[in-house]
Amino acid sequence: MQLVRLLRPFDKRRAKQTPFADMFTPYQGDEIVSLDCETTSLDPKSAEIITLAAVKICQQKVMMSQKLSIKIQPKTPINADSIPVHHIRNQDIEGAMSIEQALPLILNFIGNRPILGYFIKFDLAVLSRYTEQAYGFHLPNRPIELCHVYYKKVNTYYPDAWLDHKFETLATTLDIPILGRHTAMGDAITVALMYLQLNYGKRPSLL
Amino acid sequence: MDAQLIFANSPFDLLTKYQQKLFSDHLDIVYLPEQTHFLHQGQSATHFYIIIKGLVEEYNAANNTLYTHYSSQDFFDIRSQFGSPCKHDYRALEETLCYTLPTDIFRELLSTNPEFADYFQRDLAQKYAQLEAREGSKNLSEFILTRIDDSNLQPAVVIDAKMSLLQATQMMLEQKIETLLVEQEGVYGMLTGTDLLKAGILAGEDRNSPVANHANYGLISIDYGDFLFNAMLAMTQNRIERVVVKRGPSIVGIIEMSHVLSLFSTHSHVVALRIARAQTIDELKTAAHTLNNLVENLTNNGIKIVFIMELMATMNGQIMEKLFQLLLPKAIQDRACLMVMGSEGRGEQILKTDQDNGLIIEDDLEWPEQSQVLTEFSQHLLSFGYPPCPGNVMVSNPAWVKSQSQWQQQIDSWISRGLQGDTDSMMQLAIINDAHGVAGNKALLKPIKQQILAGCHDRELMLSQFARIALTFATPLSIFGNLKSKDAELDIKKGGIFTLVHGIRSLAIEQGIDVNNSFARTRKLIELGVLDPKQGQDLQETLQLFFWLRLEQHITPSKKGINLLDINQLTPNERDLLRHGLHVVKKFKSFLAHHFMIRDY
């Protein structure tokens, strides 16, 4: 990731040849995008996206009415090990769009907004691998890692606490209903709600 | 709560697949930190809220009154969805997550889904908001709730009484209107084309003579802004074709029957016409049998129960009157008064239920065929589909056919026996107190009703005995403990309707209120300050709900008696409303006990 940042000027120049040059201008608005993918594996170098969901957060509102939810046909069949996790079988994504068709939709949706997620680096790494292949640049969006936000908020108060960063633990501590774990949309919304809670609500109690 | 989970619950389960998609496509989630004051009194609403998690309080920030709390799966603010500004303030008491749906979408769903709309209509607290919702007349329920305004008025053209017949005729032709208003020293009369024809051809008046003598002066009027439906009722009741519309003291226009008819798509007036035109008992019978279809039609179209009741009372009254005219000799008709009692007398009939009728005849009337004709009368009504009264309150029973002075004696004796605690006499008084004259010389009824009022009004002991009957039946709230039992059924008449109706009746007698309808009585009682407005409104809503439940169960084929509600057939939401309603009944009972100082309750 450090490397990506160093190469950004080159990315920006290459992006000028594509319709996505605007992604490299600094973001001024107050929206962020909560994003989540279900993938064929957990290796960022080879994982392929099966479903991707993104939803905008505007101030204190999760704009579910403006959301993106797409299914993508991976080049290789879904790994049998991951099917029990996300419940998406190979037959469920038959006839879905290809990643080449999906990328412009995704990029247009997120634009230059910061991207929020749970272990977001993984999702961004996978996405950047695709954009590198297709357009020659990595995603320049500022990542917002939910775990970091959580850590910052809780750690200042409980400096010595060992923090469990499991998704379910976060949701329970923050008292946020989980709206469908391991569906991309459900995770994206839950993450968005947790983010709002951390930003606007009371400090969660660990006791 | 997943968005999909919303649709598992009422009323959102009433939405179609397509509507559910529209709903979820426009849904957002808002996060409200603790103590956020997010809706302010007087602001106009932009969203409909459904709570996912958390607690929201509805209150008045100005004087810090608390109204209610909403928690998970509750929704608000329904009132302001219909264009009126928020009535109160809303704040999150704890951190709260809400789904928000834009108001436009919510309204669109209401207008495309009558059942869904109906839910909000019946929701006890929200009746008035619903009345304001008449935007765009897409379905029949909105159609029938149209109010009289400039769009459906015809202008009133006022002429001076001295104008000649010729000029008036020319004016009608020129302006292409059917009706003129004639002003004579501040009094208005109506002059129609037919009147001109009669004057010119039949009476052979000179064409230069003034119109003054040919206009009809007893004008029936209706207020600007009233329901169009009421205009139709007024015309149907008075058998006229036109009413004038007034705004304050001044006349602003005319409404014609033919015009209203073109607006209404129901057959109510068609049925009324058939009743009016029936020349034989058989024709009348056919008309009477179409009435039930009419009710079913109106109910399925989501017409409010009060309007249906008003319409049915009018129609049933006309059938009785017509039968009375067809059957009784003309000489008798003017000297006797047919009265209907019970629910019919109060105008709360939604179906053709029991015949509850009686006759008052003038003291010196000789009528040998009396019993034979009256028995025939009851039999005909039976063939029209009006079942006989179980208490035998019918004209075929000589006990309910009396001369004026006999009635007066009877009432005196009922009152004195009632005072000694005779429940039967009390019930008879209750029955005749709701009497309403439908045919014959209606003036005969008045002294009798006044006698009851005079006999009970201001006599505390009497009233207390009278009101006690309302407390006789237990409110069936406990039955909900074992809802699952298969033959769970609930007698809505004993459990709720009777208590409300009789309690309101007792209060009305106490206050000397001379109207019959329970809703009208309640409104009067609120005016007089006997009931506080909130309580009064609750009572009206509850009564409406009970009538509605009874009607609905009767229309969907069921083997049970009309008053038995099959609990299992009710939706969870209806059950909830019913429970709420029965609580209102319970509260009303303790109010009555306190008000009339009834012991041992």
Core attributes:
heterodimer; A: 207 residues; alpha/beta; Nucleotidyltransferase, domain 5; 5-stranded mixed sheet; globular; B: alpha+beta; Jelly Rolls; CBS-domain; 4 domains; 4-stranded antiparallel sheet; 24 helices
Provide structural commentary.
The complex is a heterodimer of chains A (207) and B (601). With 207 residues, chain A is α/β, with parallel strands linked by helices. Chain A has one domain: Nucleotidyltransferase, domain 5 (2-Layer Sandwich), CATH 3.30.420. Chain A contains 8 helices and 5 strands; from the N terminus they run H-H-E-E-E-H-H-E-H-E-H-H-H. The N and C termini of chain A lie far apart (36 Å). In chain A, 37% of the residues are buried. The model of chain A has no long low-confidence stretch (mean pLDDT 84). The longest helix of chain B has 24 residues. Chain B folds into 4 domains: 131 residues, Jelly Rolls (Sandwich); 114 residues, CBS-domain (Roll), CATH 3.10.580.10; 189 residues, Beta Polymerase, domain 2 (2-Layer Sandwich), CATH 3.30.460.10; 130 residues, Four Helix Bundle (Hemerythrin (Met), subunit A). Chain B is of the alpha+beta class and 601 residues long. In chain B, the strands form 6 sheets. Chain B has a 4-stranded antiparallel sheet with strand order 1-8-3-6. In chain B, helix 11 runs antiparallel to helix 12 and helix 11 packs parallel to helix 13. Chains A and B meet through strand 3 and helix 8 of A and strand 1 and strand 8 of B. Strand 3 of chain A pairs antiparallel with strand 1 of chain B.
